[in-house]
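Bit of a strange request maybe. I'm writing a small parser for structure token strings and I need a real example to test against, not something I typed by hand. Could someone generate the tokens for this chain?
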Amino acid sequence: MSEIKLPAPKLKGDISVEEAIFKRRSVRDYKSDAITLEQLSQLLWAGQGITALDFFRAAPSAGASYPLELFVIAGNVKGLTAGVYHYNVKEHSLSLHIKGDLRDKLGTTAAFNQKCLSQVPVAIAICAIYERTTKTYGKRGERYVTIDTGHAAENIALQAVALGLATVMVGAFEDKKVSEILELDDEMKPMYIIPVGKQK
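Reply from user aminoacidic:
Good idea to test on real output. This should exercise your parser:
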């Protein structure tokens, strides 16, 4: 399948960073309402999008090693068929990874029956390739990958608030089952799953 080019991200929003920080909460009960491709584009850009010199990204990374990869588990995104997609940072585009709606399977099978993953129109899985960072920093690089994950996740959470959406950070899941459901390569490790949608 060809690349799905995402709408260009907006560089100016309607609320301040301070207001987004103040309003951010962990939400676990969502409406099933669809989000737009423009909103998804903005969320992905906030997490790992390029912001300078065709290389540097929205979230900081140790030594600019950028170990993170984002996968979209889409079920109800306008203009996007249900499936799992990989976010291509350099092209700001999506490529289909798996066909079909895997939200419920991910929540019930891998994430201890967390209903928020079944409710939301979309979830973003942050995954990491540790070698990108550990090849420079050794064992210490493992800590840096975890820190990088936090940077990206918070960016996504604050961007969601700015878009009138809500999130929660899901870290309670069985890594092996997530990897199997999302068909991740062995080197790719799931770090976080972030449901995104409208709060009930």
